[in-house]
Amino acid sequence: MRDPNNRQPVRRVVICGGGTAGWMAAAGISKVLGKLLDIKLIESEEIGTVGVGEATIPTLMNFHNVLEINEQEFMAETQATFKLGISFESWRNVKQDYIHSFGITGTDHWTAGFQHFWHKGVERGVASDYGDYCLELKASMENRFAHLPNNGMNYAYHLDASRYAKYLRRLSEPRGVQRIEGKIVSYAKHPNGDVRSVTLASGQEIEGDLFIDCTGFRALLIGEAMQEDVEDWSQWLFCDRAIAVQTTSVGDAVPLTRSMAHQAGWQWRIPLQHRVGNGIVYSSRYLDDDAARKQLLANVEGKTLIEPRVIKFQPCQRRNTWKGNVVAIGLSSGFLEPIESTSIHLIQRSVIRLMQSFPSDGIQQADIDEYNAQCNREIDHIRDFIILHYHVNNRTDSQFWIDAREMSIPDSLKHRIDLFKETGRVFRIPNELFAENSWIQVMLGQGIMPKSHHQTADLMGDEELKAFLGSIKGRIDRTVVQLPTHQAYVERYCGRP
Ligand code: FAD
User: Fold this and answer.
1) Domain count within the chain
2) How many angstroms does the Cα of residue 218 sit away from the middle of ligand 1?
3) What gap in Å lies between CA 262 and CA 269, rounded to an integer?
4) Hey, which of 15, 23, 47 would you mutate to test ligand 1's pocket, going by the most ligand atoms within 8 Å of its Cβ?
5) What is the pLDDT of residue 431?
6) Does residue 83 sit within a domain?
7) pLDDT(497) > 60
8) Which residue in 44, 63, 351, 433 is deepest, having the highest Cβ count within 10 Å?
């Protein structure tokens, strides 16, 4: 517990690490509080960055709004493409695919969600696929995209992670962030346990009031200096390795992240303007590195541009990502595999949260406790959502999928699945990332069909229900057909690569 009378103002912020997390933190803090602070960022070219993390979700837009980023400039600089959702291939069962898209499906209704009307429609034989009632999903299937008025199309980006860090650096330095090249080799502490300074291999010592640990999986300050342990989640999430490789583009970029399940995990494909990012995620208990590498390379298109490399990870979270005067952001805070592209989202949430609670007049334990409680609530919901993808499956072709189906799951997730199965109901918990439509798309996609629906849907007659569903589908079909192809739109919007 901190001394409540110690009100040492926070003026010197030291960001350790310059990957996506470090530069997002630098860009955010310098934009909002830059004039009041002395901000230093230390990164080591010799160590480099993890070099993956290229699929995002629409919440990134909020962060870009804070930074006043010009979208066309950002897309050109990071060779980004648009993303409308994720295509989950063979997750439910081999060769059974579905899309988890952004946006909403159908319309809102204050008593019952659209899924209840759709369910009634299926029962009466007047409804088609659930996805037919979602604009973003249909556009992604047709490989089409355009900005629509009134934010009519919900989207995110695929981006080149290393270009993104460089782009954010260019925004941050003019706002006063001082970048220091060098490798941190040691740290010194105050008697109360706070970090006083870090020392580089060159001998330079850098003091600070607040340290932001963005050193990636190394977790130099939060793990080593502050000895904050992780909560391990590998009983639910078996994957602990990834191999990433970049390839040349073959054909048009699609506005979808592809997530292709295999016998012991899954493989991603992320199309950018100038290349494609690929990677295989797997459990070392079920698949060895050589077999995974072969499997990855057998399932990529185009020429490989880099040597594939193995990345080891542990599915986990630190319960205190803020401890003393150290705040861990990015991979140093924990890691959930990128099935739903949530890591960059969590980085921007942490940066925004830290700015909201910024301890200008001194670090208070109450601020720390609130920050950590908010982070924990947020991550627990995401963890459940990710486990759902593995647990609800019909695959019988490998022990990995059988074990995932048979494992016991967190009570919070079990409750959601049971509720949906029995009643078709889903409720979003306040401040949780994934809204009802995401849970519904994934639960239906993984093969859960509710046993019943809300009675309000029964009040509609056959013709009324048919007309209601038909009008939504018709409006979407008419919109999609008028959209340009995603590739043509990106070329026009960003200039041909
Ligand atoms: P890093 O990129 O590893 O950066 C660490 C920084 O710390 C580097 O600059 C390094 O030089 C520096 N550093 C380390 N030690 C020292 C030292 N001693 N001295 C000085 N500097 C030091 N997220 C998504 O949102 N979408 C995705 O699609 C996605 N895919 C992923 C796929 C895989 C396989 C993995 C592992 C992660 C993925 N992520 C994804 C997560 C995403 O990659 C990270 O959240 C993001 O890149 C942030 O990483 P980071 O900045 O925390 O760490």
Assistant:
1) 1
2) 10
3) 13
4) 47
5) 86
6) no
7) no
8) 351
* Cα 51 to middle of ligand 1, angstroms: 7
CA of 230 to the centre of ligand 1 (A): 17
ipTM above 0.95, yes or no: yes
The fraction of the chain above a pLDDT of 70, given in percent, is 99
Query: Residue 257 C-alpha to ligand 1 middle, in angstroms?
Result: 19
152-161 pLDDT, tens digit per residue, is 999 999 999 9
CA of 182 to the centre of ligand 1 (A): 17
User: Per the domain annotation, does 185 fall within a domain?
Assistant: yes
Residue of the CA atom closest to atom 31 of ligand 1: 53
* Lowest-confidence segment of 28-37, 105-114, 188-197, 287-296 by average pLDDT: 105-114
**Residue range of the domain that includes 28:** 12-54+160-233+315-363
Query: Given a cut of 70, is residue 415 above it in pLDDT?
Result: yes
- Return the percentage of the chain with pLDDT > 90, whole number: 94
Which residues have any ligand 1 atom within 6 Å of their CB?
17-22, 42-44, 47-50, 52-56, 161, 183-184, 214-216, 218, 220, 242, 244, 279, 311, 313, 330-332, 338, 341, 343-344, 347
Q: Which tens digit of pLDDT belongs to each residue from 53-69?
A: 899 999 999 999 999 99
Domain contains 300: no
pLDDT in tens, 228-281: 999 999 999 999 999 999 999 999 999 999 999 999 999 999 999 999 999 999
CA 270 to ligand 1: nearest atom: 28
Asked whether residue 173 is assigned to any structural domain, the reply reads yes
Res 496: pLDDT: 59
Check which CATH number belongs to the domain holding 174 and give it.
Answer: 3.50.50.60
